[in-house]
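Re: beginner question about structure tokens

> Can someone show what the tokenized structure looks like for a real chain? I only ever see the sequence side.

Sure, here's an example I had lying around. Input first:
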Amino acid sequence: MIKKRIGTLRKTTAILGVLAFALFAAGCYTGQGSKTYTRGQAQTPMQVYYGTVLQVSDVTIENKPTGIGVGVGGAAGGVVGSTIGSGTGRVLAATAGALAGAAGGAAAEKAAGTKPGLEIEVELDDGRILVVVQEKDDVYNVGDRVRLIQSGGSMRVRQ
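And the corresponding structure tokens:
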């Protein structure tokens, strides 16, 4: 009886650990909008350009898959599946749980990393034309006067 409780406690601890890691990984996402800056960009000089919006298109911004969703989902599914049945049935349930968890984890990671965005084409006052893709966190219309803020290799459009 004590061995069974210890086994259940280990499985519960493993599930909680996997969930804690998944929450941590989800919290690592940094936005790509016009109002989001990284810690390294704060108090750093940036160049500002002025221009007029020529075109605005809706786009989808996807993060590059890291495999964290597959790993976390597979581990959680395997742990949960291993609590079902005994012998060969337990092995099959753990395997099925791991596969289902991996698929679910991959889908969850993709959904969490997909954001609506805008492709904004701007004609700068000096005549150059630039396109900036950023998260959809503001409304831009053709003809709007905007600022383009450049920091290192990144640029954002602001009203």
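Each token stands for a local structural state, so reading them left to right follows the chain. Confidence is low (pLDDT under 50) at residues 22-30.
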